[in-house]
Specification:
Length: 590
């Protein structure tokens, strides 16, 4: 009842009910295929556990069929395929059979996949080039460090007549949104090659918009097909022998000029300036012939193109400078750290490895000291350690062994037991209950595997939904609350062990030495400040945890005392017990 899109959208008014829609166009001997699809979950989960696209095997089948419309026809006309979807590949889950949208796109070697979701919230360079991998267990299924990885296919004039099947590839281009970023994209297809220009309207309307269509921006070229097209179509004057651009203007355009700059020693030098002509006397296409062989170079970013337009009032407009390569070479550029986090990481694949690695470390932090304590309490081991302890005690104060303060945590039995029980609770029991679905009046249980569907109708085949969407709750809690809290507790236990050992040493050396007494007081001051710092470090952890709990309370109508008592109060209680146990030593009385 709350799905307004199905009632009021253009698709609804036209009677389009499927999750995949397509449009086909034929022009100038070429075919163009545009396919849009909806991969949102059928069950509308509340935010924030709804950040992933949830494609089904049926959706991928329909998507594959839509992209294959012209594949079986006996025609030599090339087909340019472009897909539209909401979720980027990095935020699209796998189907129940383990397939992904990326597999379908690689099969058809799309020219571009246009998506939204992230928009410009994490940067304006959210683009990624995907290539098929021969190695099934490649690291690319988890992350990709650069926007483009791998080398473009080498093509020479000798093998133009025998073109081999190119590797599967496609570009993923995130789009800015109009609501918050006031961004609009103009996409152009020129002789099968796709280029675009993003317009920023945050500071008002644009009188002139310029979209260069050829030569292509070498940063966004297809790395296997475009080098072949550039080299093997070199004799086509209509294709590679002209510079082309679209110029949209509110006023009459008096002149359009193509400028080519050479990048040398960090500065641009103008090497070509030619006036362009309107192709048909009207419309937006401007062209000019050029000697493209003059710009053949092994560097993909040595030459840069810029289009200049002058309107009837004499005002000059310039397009963004973009590198090009007539050799078909691809220029490299990189993400920022923020952009890499959302585009370079395949989060649906990384969720479980990150979660289980963190839990394994936390369990080892709790269980290894206990095992060490049992080991060192053996009488035989104590006999072996006695000579070592005697030698150290005769040589003055020595820092305590790691084994000594490592087992101190397990001696704080109540705290140690609480830490172990809390970890077991996170693995085997629901974290909290809340209203995850707007239309469902029953509360649902959240596990690390997703929301339990026990009280949700028509979901008997799915025990959990919202995987890996629940990672936005699970991973921040483990990495930014539980992990630092347990490390602080271990540090408090280590400080307690150091204090006890040092106190024992000093009591064994009561010989009236005033210098040693002064050193003893100095060490106590050090322990005092260490403990104070550890207590202060607890404050940001508790603050972060409180913010998480408050967000969950608002999102899912959670009562912390009834629906999530262990989740909300478990970690603060363990920190408080550790501080209380440590402060009972009386060091604050110095």
């Amino acid at each position: 009842m709350f799905d307004f899109y199905k009632k009021h959208s253009i698709n609804a008014r036209l009677g389009r009910k499927g999750a995949v829609q397509s449009i086909t166009l034929q022009s100038g001997g070429r075919k163009h295929l545009f396919v849009g699809f909806d991969s949102t979950m059928d069950i509308g989960l509340r935010s924030p556990t709804n950040i992933f696209g949830q494609p089904t095997d049926q959706l991928l089948f329909d998507l594959d069929a839509a992209l294959s419309q012209w594949d079986n026809q006996s025609t030599s006309s090339p087909v340019t395929k472009i897909a539209f979807g909401h979720f980027p590949i990095s935020f699209s889950a796998l189907t129940s059979s383990g397939r992904s949208i990326r597999d379908v796109f690689l099969k058809h070697s799309l020219s571009a996949y246009l998506c939204g979701h992230l928009h410009t919230n994490f940067g304006r360079n959210l683009k990624r080039h995907h290539t098929s991998e021969k190695n099934r267990f490649s690291s690319k299924q988890y992350f990709q460090f650069d926007i483009c990885e791998g080398m473009p296919t080498a093509v020479s004039n000798d093998n133009c007549s025998a073109r081999t099947e190119s590797a599967g590839e496609f570009w993923e281009w995130e789009m800015g949104d109009w609501r918050s970023a006031r961004s609009m994209r103009i996409l152009a297809i020129d002789s099968g090659h796709v280029s675009y220009a993003d317009m920023d309207f945050r500071f008002g309307s644009r009188d002139v918009i310029i979209v260069p269509t050829f030569p292509l921006d070498s940063r966004f070229m297809q790395r296997s097909s475009d080098p072949f097209d550039f080299i093997c179509q070199a004799t086509s004057a209509a294709h590679i022998g002209t510079v082309r651009a679209l110029v949209f203007s509110r006023y009459k355009i008096e002149s359009v000029t193509a400028k080519v700059y050479e990048l040398h020693s960090g500065s641009f030098h103008l090497v070509l300036e030619q006036e362009m002509e309107n192709t048909s006397g009207k419309g937006a296409m401007y062209t000019v012939a050029w000697n493209w062989r003059d710009f053949s170079d092994e560097s993909p970013d040595r030459y840069w193109l810029q289009i200049e337009a002058v309107d009837m009032s004499g005002k000059v407009y310039l397009s963004e400078q973009r590198p090009f390569s007539v050799n078909g070479l691809t220029a490299k550029f990189s993400w920022t750290w923020k952009e890499f986090r959302v585009m370079g990481c395949q989060w649906n694949q990384l969720y479980f490895p990150i979660m289980w690695t963190t839990l394994a470390f936390l369990f080892s932090l709790v269980l290894v000291p206990r095992t060490s304590l049992t080991f060192y309490e053996n009488r035989f081991m104590l006999k072996l350690l006695k000579p070592k302890m005697t030698r150290r005690s005769s040589g003055g104060f020595s820092p305590v062994d790691f084994e000594f303060f490592g087992v101190e945590l397990s001696k704080m039995y109540i705290i140690w037991s609480g830490m172990l029980l809390y970890l077991l609770y996170l693995v085997f029991f629901p974290w909290f209950t809340g209203y995850a679905v707007t239309e469902n009046h029953n509360k649902m249980y959240l596990h690390y595997k997703g929301w339990s569907t026990k009280y949700l109708a028509n979901t008997s085949s799915m025990p959990y939904i919202g995987l890996p969407d629940v990672m936005v709750i699970v991973l921040p809690h483990l990495l930014f609350v539980v992990l630092p809290a347990f490390l602080i507790i271990a540090a408090i236990a280590a400080e307690r062990a150091l204090y006890l050992r040092h106190n024992i040493y000093q009591r064994a050396k009561k010989d009236g030495d005033h210098y040693k007494e002064a050193c003893y007081t100095e060490y106590l001051c050090i322990f005092y400040w260490i403990r104070k710092i550890l207590i202060l470090l607890c404050l940001p952890i508790v603050w972060k945890h409180w913010k998480h709990c408050r967000a969950i309370m608002r999102a899912y109508e959670v009562n912390p005392f009834i629906d999530a008592p262990i989740y909300c109060f478990g970690v603060p209680a363990l920190l408080w017990l550790a501080i209380y146990r440590s402060s009972s030593l009386g060091v604050y009385q110095i």
